[in-house]
From TrEMBL:
It is found in: Cell inner membrane. GO terms for cellular component: plasma membrane. Its main location: membrane. The chain crosses the membrane at residues 52-71, 99-124, 145-168, 174-195. The keyword Transcription regulation does not apply. Keywords: Cell inner membrane, Cell membrane, Membrane, Transmembrane, Transmembrane helix. This is Paraquat-inducible protein A.
Length: 208
């Protein structure tokens, strides 16, 4: 039944990507939203290819982000390098299971779910499948909502610096894993912003 409903372009309407205002599509080049004055676009250009490239780059950076140590803790007679996972284990062993769960969820579970969700959206849009379009649209909105809190993953790194309580002669310094982790967060945010959810509804493979 929903397939018989007219589309926005058939009604001469266009939505602002910034404030969400539905505007009349005049067809003029360089049209702007009357409310926020942002440029109006019927489609996100090269949505599929851009999202895929950003997602693959983020996944490639996510591997060293978890393999390389993210911080070095040094005290008298002891130097210890911690990855995200080893930090989670140490938090659990040292009696902070709640903090360990938060770190594990924000730094490992959430990024992996974003990879899987965006990958599913890309695959289903590429193959023009009509399967669960409404549910996929909700999934995209969920990924977009999580994107607003993606920097929590980076803030979690700061929590790991409190992994052990040190004395005066102690030192905590970041290691390369932090850089890879931060880049992963940024690229996944850009990937979700690049995806055009209208690909879910119109069944087109891509607009590149």
């Amino acid at each position: 039944m929903s397939q018989d409903l007219p589309r926005a372009d058939e009604l001469g309407l266009i939505g602002c990507h910034v404030c969400g205002l539905v505007c009349r599509d005049t067809g003029a080049e360089g049209a702007h939203c009357p409310r926020c004055h942002s440029a109006l676009h019927r489609r996100k250009q090269a949505s599929y290819s851009r999202t895929l490239a950003l997602l693959l780059a983020a996944f490639m950076l996510y591997i060293p982000a978890n393999v390389l140590p993210i911080m070095r803790t040094a005290s008298v007679g002891d130097i210890d390098d911690n990855t995200i996972l080893s930090g989670v284990i140490e938090l659990w062993v040292k009696g902070s299971p709640d903090l360990a769960v938060i770190v594990f969820t924000a730094s490992i579970v959430v990024p992996m779910l974003k990879f899987l969700a965006l990958g599913l959206l890309l695959w289903s849009s590429r193959h023009a499948t009509p399967w669960a379009r409404r549910q996929r649209a909700k999934l995209y909105r969920l990924v977009e909502l999580i994107g607003y809190w993606s920097m929590l993953d980076v803030f979690v790194v700061a929590l790991l610096t409190a992994l052990v309580r040190f004395g005066v002669l102690s030192l905590v310094e970041p290691l390369p894993g932090v850089v890879f982790f931060g880049l992963t967060v940024i690229l996944t945010m850009f990937a979700s912003m690049s995806f055009d959810p209208r690909l879910i509804w119109d069944g087109r493979e891509s607009d590149d």
